[in-house]
Amino acid sequence: MSSRPLRADAARNRARVLEVADEVFGEQGRAGSTEEVARRAGVGVATVFRHFPTKESLLAAVLAARVHAIADLADRLVRDGDPATALFDFLRHVVAQSHTKSLLTEALTDAGVDPYEARRGADTRLREAVAALLERSQAAGAVRADVGVDEVFPLLAAAARAAEVSRDDATRDRAVGVVLDGLRAR
Amino acid sequence: MSSRPLRADAARNRARVLEVADEVFGEQGRAGSTEEVARRAGVGVATVFRHFPTKESLLAAVLAARVHAIADLADRLVRDGDPATALFDFLRHVVAQSHTKSLLTEALTDAGVDPYEARRGADTRLREAVAALLERSQAAGAVRADVGVDEVFPLLAAAARAAEVSRDDATRDRAVGVVLDGLRAR
Amino acid sequence: MSSRPLRADAARNRARVLEVADEVFGEQGRAGSTEEVARRAGVGVATVFRHFPTKESLLAAVLAARVHAIADLADRLVRDGDPATALFDFLRHVVAQSHTKSLLTEALTDAGVDPYEARRGADTRLREAVAALLERSQAAGAVRADVGVDEVFPLLAAAARAAEVSRDDATRDRAVGVVLDGLRAR
Amino acid sequence: MSSRPLRADAARNRARVLEVADEVFGEQGRAGSTEEVARRAGVGVATVFRHFPTKESLLAAVLAARVHAIADLADRLVRDGDPATALFDFLRHVVAQSHTKSLLTEALTDAGVDPYEARRGADTRLREAVAALLERSQAAGAVRADVGVDEVFPLLAAAARAAEVSRDDATRDRAVGVVLDGLRAR
DNA sequence: GATGAATGAGACTTCATTCAT
DNA sequence: AATGAATGAAGTCTCATTCAT
Lengths: 186, 186, 186, 186
Fold this sequence. Notes:
The structure is a homotetramer.
Chain A: H1 8-28, H2 34-41, H3 45-51, H4 55-80, H5 83-97, H6 103-109, H7 117-139, H8 149-165, H9 169-183
Chain A binds a DNA duplex through helix 1 and helix 3.
């Protein structure tokens, strides 16, 4: 009863705001303004604040959404992927999405630190899925044995960062490739 | 006419501002405020603006100073270091410094994009020194042959990022180690 | 047409809103928000606005209700009280109720200034009842002869104010006592 | 050294803001807006906030100024007034000033509760001056012996309130007179 | 050359009120 | 008749930048 399903139009608005917020914060980091989100979403600021009572909570929602999407991917790969390449496929996919101002990185980073409940569920899911991926890949002898989940997140951030700052596509692929190579068993 | 040598006190002020700005932006990223820089430097805001007509230009100067320092290190290692480890030593050193709010990473990143002239000189110097380091290490057979300077910068950013988001020192060392391992010749 | 009798549920809602509004405005003064009234009453904001088209009108209704209650008390005392003490009893009772953020004081104050019709009836009733009380007490020789109803309301407000700002119960009783003593015939 | 004297123009601005704030808050109570203060003072909002970093601090400054003025009066009367009437003269004067939305009352009320240092000095001064006035008047046999300073403030508030809500000057004088009469020794 | 005051623009947030369901 | 979403206007506050002293 606490959260009766939103009315159709409200739900649409909420979704639109979230989507736009992802865009804005993606471009400008947390410096992006609520007002720009509202403007681009075609609603008043107050509407944004009705759905997300705080800028911080909007940010949390955006991050949670991204993390959920990534966890979905990880789940899929755990189930269906080739163990020998699954972790690498996963990392590459995520990196490919994280073009934007390190928001994702942030999301992947402070797992567990965040007070907004939205985050916690997502973070846990992701962590578990990644752990599964890692174990599988290690069992298949594809990934070196001396890394754990705790290292995977920084490495993901690292690869994303490398991608972010590369000057062209070819450079980016090589740079990311180097990071991933570091993970391989030899 | 623009570059008449500064009066002694003005020069001292300029240096002090720069030093403090590095501190402030180091702590708070570009969100750090001009006013705080002025306060900590013990001068008025207007003085900051006389030396750096724009917040952006102050940031550029801070970054240039850091880049120069890093280029100094690279130069030193080119001259005196062990070719087999020089590049790695360099990377580790830089990573160790870049704890703070990814300012350095930023500095190392948008080389060449920036309009402020201060940056250009520093960037060029650094690029050349790193190129030298890299060649030497590759000649010594320590670093894989298929990477170039263009990849080194993203990889530096990557390692710095990994360091930044690691939850503890041990994790950080392992994560950075993985990235560097990716660079080694096999 | 406007005053067709309300449907039973509507009437219940209206009453509930009024009751809750008294509570909220009592606690927070006119700064209390419509939305909080709605929430505590368990209805939507729009329902509040259907019954009271304006926040101002809701306030007026709350005040009118309080004034009616006070007029009831005055009527009772006119009928049943001891003339020698009736006015004092009345004043003390009212003061005892008006702890809250001077809303009552306000109610007792701007009688006649207010555009909302709700107020007028209540104000008139009260004024008449108080006039009766006063005359009776003066006839009994308990109250000085040189004050009229016009002075009683400010004095009521005065006593309420004194009560409001006193730092503890004993101080309050003494302060209010002084005001009432001013009213006694000597 | 912490507060070097303000530059002449800044001091003028500060004074003007304070003056206008007194006016605005006088008319509208603490609901008055900083923006209106700025507008009426002919400065930007930011200027108001430079001088008073918080709305609350502006309010505190206004109140402190009023309290100081009142304490001045009390001091004067302790020194030069006729003991038999000094306290009454004081009360009447203060009441005559406190036309406005009970700001003064508030000032006179929460003495000692306030965190802003500005307030504390003023409050103490006033309390002491009033205590002196009271003792003197009691010694002269003009004021009843069973009231203390703690009662005087509520009674002042009471008289001010009575004045505030009276419908015309004659009524006001009578109502205030009644309150003061309550204080007289018989 | 240096200072600190002033400012305009913008950020977050709240609220009375209106509208679609 | 009732609901809760949407909104515009306003409020408090911050900050890069300019100006008077």
